[in-house]
């Protein structure tokens, strides 16, 4: 007698699986486009054959401390809330690598150039 799969069994199997996270390594990250506008600095990043469009570099100061991070593109829903189109969940060192690379591109250098290598 064949056993049938029920919705409960499928839900239990899905709940027991933990999603695998891809570790972003600087070697695979490429800057496709950088655009400095009145609304901020935007860039497109390519990694492992996927291109992530419309990333925004956010910089500022709060409580006397400078901050900078990457914000994914979002849209405003009909209820007034904002929703991201996708979430990259980048580690802090990966964000710093991308942000520094974008600023190097704006200065006319290569994205993956490390100024420390020149010393």
Keywords summarizing the entry:
6 strands; alpha+beta; four-stranded antiparallel beta sheet; 119 residues; 2 helices; globular
Q: Gap between N and C termini, in Å?
A: 73 Å
The helix-and-strand class reads: alpha+beta
Strand order, main sheet: write it out.
1-2-3-4
Count of DSSP strands: 6
Task: Please give the count of helices.
Answer: 2
Q: Give me the strand/helix succession.
A: HEEEEEEH
Arithmetic mean of pLDDT = 82
- Roughly how much helix do the residues carry, as a percent range? 10-25%
Strand content: 35-45%
Largest sheet: 4 strands, antiparallel
Low-confidence stretches: none
What does the overall shape look like?
Answer: globular
Rg from Cα: 20 Å
Brief synopsis:
Helix content is 21%, strand content 36%. The chain contains 2 helices and 6 strands.
Give the helices and strands, then pairings.
Blueprint (H helix, E strand, L loop, with lengths): L6 H10 L12 E9 L2 E8 L2 E13 L2 E7 L2 E3 L5 E3 L7 H15 L13
Antiparallel strand pairs: 1-2, 2-3, 3-4, 5-6
Give a written overview of the molecule.
This protein is of the alpha+beta class. It has a domain at 29-108. The chain contains two helices and six strands. The protein has helices at residues 7-16, 92-106, and strands spanning 29-37, 40-47, 50-62, 65-71, 74-76, 82-84. The strands form two sheets. It has a four-stranded antiparallel beta sheet, with helices on one face. The longest helix has 15 residues, at 92-106. The N and C termini lie far apart (73 Å). 7% of the residues are buried. The mean pLDDT is 82.
């Amino acid at each position: 007698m064949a056993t049938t799969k029920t919705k409960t069994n499928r839900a239990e199997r899905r709940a027991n699986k933990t999603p695998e996270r891809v570790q972003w390594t600087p070697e695979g990250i490429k800057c496709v486009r950088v655009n400095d506008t009145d609304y901020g600095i935007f860039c497109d990043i390519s990694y492992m054959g996927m291109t992530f469009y419309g990333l925004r570099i956010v910089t500022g100061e709060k409580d006397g401390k400078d901050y900078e991070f990457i914000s994914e593109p979002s849209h405003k829903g009909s209820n007034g809330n904002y929703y991201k189109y996708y979430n990259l969940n980048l580690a802090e060192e990966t964000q710093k690598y991308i942000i520094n690379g974008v600023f190097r591109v704006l200065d006319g250098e290569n994205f993956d150039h490390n100024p420390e290598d020149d010393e």
